Amino acid sequence: MTSDPLAPLDLAFWNIESADHPMHLGALGIFSARSPTAGAHAADLLAARAAAVPGLRMRIRDTWRPLDLRNPLPRGLGRSLAHGLRRPLGLGGATREPDPCFDPLNHVRLHAPARDFHAAAGRLMQRPLERNRPPWEAHVLPGEDGVCFAVLFKFHHALADGLRALSLAAAVLDPVDLPVRRPRPPEPRGGLLPDVRELPGLLRGALSDVGRALDIGASVARSTLATRSVPALTAQPTGTRRTAGVVIDIDDVHLVRKAVGGTVNDVLIAVVAGALRSWLDERGDGSEGVAPRALIPVSRRRPRAAQPQGNRLSGYLMELPVGVPDPLRRLTAVRTAMDRNKDAGPDRGAGAVALLADHVPALGHRIGGPLVGQAARLWFDILVTSVPLPGFGLRLGGHPLTAVYPFAPLAPGQSLAVAISTYRGHVHYGLVADAQAVPDLNRLARAVSEEVETLITVCAP
């Protein structure tokens, strides 16, 4: 496998990272077990299988060239320039390439038996991944009771988005019989220069891209004009992490959806809004007039297509109706905002800012990465993302996966992120927080469960 230049968005994630802002996503899978040694056996299986998965052997290497002192860079870039050039001093992007020294034992780790999987996951999520190795890890946590074990997968966001991470993790689980994918017809090979007849279309596409970039930039600027931070959701970063998980029955979600309309995703986002309201009131911060801006990532991958490496993301931006006291009105507000976003499409608007990465040269990502990270708190207050999982059951060493909690990375200056997955008839909320800024994360998790019960009660016939 040859080296592959990092796509612009992957490069952005690679350069945003710092010691206090690890840019990895994760998933905590819980497996039932039939013996106390099941966890150790699972660790052996993961290490053996990882060696055969090409995508897990890929490291990310910075490509650079020394600065030409005869053409110095402009003055006035300040600390951001120094930070951006520190890793390493030079200009350029990065490539994804096979690690000639790959050893799966550097990535798969067996831990001592754990009483609380989420407490252990929080400590492990706060550790940045090694940047000189393929940026992923699998931590196996045996349960103290011997009837279950957990595996925490960590993937750097520059290596994979949610769907790509899922495909990499699935590659080391037990094989699953899947329907054979129809081969796609090969794309015609083009020459070095486009056909003259194609130039008008290429020109229109280029102009459309420029127009879209300007539209997105203007929308981002407008969205930050009325910036009003939510103190509970913003904090000086400490590099610490805490995680929590909530499981709800998908049938309860469908009950609410059928009663009031909209989509399952509308209900799941409204649950987050209601839980935040209860949490803010309970901790004394108050929810009146609060409307935090939520970034809702949107995958631009095709569901049945092979998953290429790297990120294919856009997003929607919306205000969560936390300050609305009535649960049905909150749900209606979420539904209206999501419908408006869908009508506009994922390629325009402030939520599609990830697409601007394609218009920034490699040097811009290297220099501007820290600035972009710090600007995230002006752009949105909380990330609420959904990671689809397969409908069939997954296993590791014959042990069934019973629950899976996805974890999103925290943006610099933000204290909370929410990820959601549906698996085997249940919805799993994975909450990640700065451990010092949100010591009461379990209280928020409880509020998620209570909000579902509230919606069921008001929607009951």
Structural class: alpha+beta
The CATH superfamily name of the largest domain is: Nonribosomal peptide synthetase, condensation domain
Radius of gyration: 23 Å
Number of helices: 11
How do the strands line up in the largest sheet? Answer: 5-6-7-2-13-12
Task: Report the oligomer.
Answer: single chain
CATH class of the largest domain: Alpha Beta
Q: The biggest beta sheet, please?
A: 6 strands, mixed
Amount of helix: 25-40%
Order of helices and strands: EHEHEHEEHEEHHEHHEEHHEEEEEH
Strand content of the residues, in percent? 15-25%
CATH topology of the largest domain: Chloramphenicol Acetyltransferase
The average pLDDT is 79
Tell me the CATH architecture of the largest domain.
2-Layer Sandwich
Count all strands and give the number. Answer: 15
- N- to C-terminal distance: 59 Å
Gross geometry:
globular
Structure description:
This protein has 461 residues and is of the alpha+beta class. The protein has 2 domains: 4-170, Chloramphenicol acetyltransferase-like domain (Chloramphenicol Acetyltransferase, 2-Layer Sandwich); 210-393 and 407-459, Chloramphenicol Acetyltransferase, CATH 3.30.559.30. The protein is 35% helix and 20% strand. It has 11 helices and 15 strands. It has helices at residues 8-16, 38-50, 78-85, 117-125, 162-170, 199-225, 250-260, 264-282, 327-344, 362-379, 441-459, and strands spanning 4-5, 24-32, 58-62, 94-98, 108-110, 136-142, 148-156, 242-249, 293-299, 313-319, 382-386, 395-396, 399-407, 416-423, 426-433. The chain has a 6-stranded mixed sheet with strand order 5-6-7-2-13-12, sandwiched between helices. Strands 8-15-14-11-9-10 form a 6-stranded mixed sheet. Strands 1-4-3 form a 3-stranded antiparallel sheet, with no helix packed on it. Helix 4 (117-125) links the parallel strand 5 (108-110) and strand 6 (136-142). Helix 7 (250-260) crosses helix 8 (264-282). It is globular and about 55 Å long. The chain starts with a strand and ends with a helix. Residues 65-90, 187-225, 303-307 and 349-369 have low confidence and may be disordered.
